[in-house]
Design goal:
single chain; about 350 residues; 9-stranded mixed β-sheet; 12 helices; 9 strands; globular
Length: about 350
């Protein structure tokens, strides 16, 4: 199979100082030119323009235009910290059809502390307001759960839904080529599992099927923090890949296995020349669980999550029926908690 998704770090430069990511410490180096992005494999249907902070590139609209010319039907999303409202509004207005996700890790000053930038929350909210005003339809918020902010996930989710915005969430990861070593910021089970469960419950109770599958993603985050196996094997290389600003291809943004350069070979040649990397990826023990490494598989093979979704939706109905019949009864704990209690 050929990949249908890619994360493109168009720059490693960043104007944020996030606790959960060390990219802002990396010196900004050589970057691909806009026309270089036409060398991407023709099968792509979802493309994430990431960084660093992609809006730091003055030629981001030209990059988008080059990608749009080659992939006119692809969904292209830019991931931004939202710290430059006027610049982001101006540049986005020159990129019709672009989807945007603005990072928020807490409500108010706690977000500023995590992001390491005073006033970050208000600037990000202003960016969302401006993008909504100019008609960006595919607009949303992305959050990263870490030590100290798990209780903020539901409030952010509620704020996003009240504003008609999408909401996606991941949990802190470590990566030698991307986030840096962040093991100390991965939240504990005690801290995050109750909050993840609250978020999962809200997503399952939504009338939007998309939210039900996001609840499946949230459940996978619980497994990751609990040290449980991934819900399904990694499909990097087949379904998606990561491209750094120099054109270097990696199977994902978690592994440091260099596959080749998109500036020197096409994707098929790069994969054929990387059999050892392919074998390593198929036996990967990192067990990561992030939107960029999970959603590509779910979009291509949604039936993987369907049994879980159906079971949980039916469980909600049964719980609701019991609550009506026995108002004094409390909700049952999660399967994970019951297992830890000896199945009682």
């Amino acid at each position: 199979m050929r990949p249908n998704e890619a994360v493109l770090a168009v720059t490693l430069g960043c104007n944020s100082r996030c606790k959960t990511c060390d990219l802002w410490r990396v010196e900004r180096g050589p970057e691909m030119k806009p026309d270089d992005y036409t060398r991407l494999p023709s099968t792509l249907t979802h493309i994430n323009l990431s960084g660093g902070e992609p809006y730091l590139r003055d030629d981001l609209p030209e990059i988008y235009a080059a990608i749009r010319d080659k992939f006119p039907k692809a969904r292209v999303v830019a991931s931004t910290n939202g710290l430059m409202p006027e610049r982001i509004e101006s540049m986005t207005s020159r990129m019709p059809g672009l989807a945007v996700r603005v990072s928020l890790d807490a409500i108010g000053p706690r977000n500023d502390e995590i992001r390491g930038v005073p006033g970050a929350y208000e600037r990000s909210i202003e960016t969302l307001r401006r993008l909504s005003a100019i008609g960006v339809r595919d607009l949303g918020v992305s959050s990263t759960a870490s030590k100290g902010n798990c209780d903020q996930l539901v409030p952010i989710y509620r704020m996003a839904r009240e504003r008609g915005l999408e909401f996606v969430c991941s949990v802190t990861h470590s990566s030698s080529i991307y986030f840096g070593r962040q093991d100390g910021l991965i939240p504990s089970e005690q801290e995050c599992l109750p909050e993840f469960k609250r978020l999962e419950d809200r997503q399952l109770r939504s009338r939007r099927p998309k939210e039900w599958f996001r609840a499946y993603m949230t459940s996978g985050m619980m497994d990751y923090v609990s040290g449980l196996p991934r819900k399904f094997p990694c499909t990097a290389i087949d379904d998606y890949f990561y491209l750094d600003p120099t054109g270097t291809v990696y199977p994902c943004n978690m592994r440091d296995d260099v596959m080749g350069s998109i500036l020197e070979s096409d994707y098929d040649e790069i994969v054929k020349g990387s059999p050892d990397v392919y074998r390593k990826v198929r036996g990967c023990r990192i067990q990561c669980w992030m939107s960029c490494t999970v959603a590509p598989t779910l979009r291509r093979k949604p039936w993987i999550a369907l049994p879980w979704v159906v079971k949980r939706k039916l469980g909600l109905r049964e719980t609701g029926a019991r609550a009506i019949a026995r108002p004094e009864g409390g909700l049952l704990g999660s399967g994970r908690n019951r297992a830890r209690a000896g199945g009682k």
